[in-house]
Design goal:
Blueprint lengths: L1 E13 L3 E3 L2 E3 L3 E3 L7 H13 L5 H4 L12 H14 L4 E9 L9 H12 L6 E6 L5 H4 L3 E10 L1
Parallel strand pairs: 5-6
Antiparallel strand pairs: 1-4, 1-7, 2-3, 5-7
The chain binds zinc ion.
The site of zinc ion (ZN) has 5 residues, from strand 1 and helix 1.
């Protein structure tokens, strides 16, 4: 068994789409980033690479590489899964936390869980997504950023 931890944070700016787990959440601000900025999928990718001791998202998909500009993070996840599967690992379960002050995400959680489960090829019962605010504290609490933490277990 191998455990991996992923963390990511992106600035929230007007004129960008808020992507979380491959789902576009209606909001007037979205993640600033070289790719689509999906903070949750980036944390998933880092957790998977971490569990395999294969570096991190920046090493595999550098933001200086024009190939990854505005690329859907789901495509980066597909490439990451190829790395994991080539090493012979299977994913057991995933537990994630999104930290976002607004909007409320509870109604989007089933769709986010289902989409991540589909992408990872595991049952939705093996995918947990939780949502927190930062109680108005720090940049994320001031609605200037969104964060995600993810833990994965692989066999
Ligand atoms: Zn990121």
């Amino acid at each position: 068994m191998r455990i991996g931890l992923g963390y990511d944070i992106h600035r929230l700016v007007r004129g960008r789409t808020l992507y979380l787990g491959g789902i576009a959440v209606p909001w007037h601000k979205g993640e600033l980033g070289h790719s689509d900025g999906d903070v949750l999928l980036h944390a998933v990718i880092d957790a998977l690479l971490g569990a395999a001791a294969m570096g991190d998202i920046g090493a595999h998909f550098p933001s200086t590489d024009p190939r990854y500009k505005d690329m859907p993070s789901s495509e980066l996840l597909v490439k990451t899964l190829e790395i994991i599967r080539n090493l012979g690992y299977t994913i057991v379960n995933l537990d994630g936390t999104i930290i976002l002050e607004k909007p409320k995400l509870l109604s989007f959680v089933p769709e986010i869980r289902a989409n991540i489960a589909r992408m990872l090829g595991i049952d939705v019962s093996a995918v947990s997504i939780k949502c927190k605010t930062k109680e108005g504290l720090e940049s994320t609490g001031r609605e200037q950023a969104v964060e995600a933490h993810v833990a994965v277990l692989m066999d």
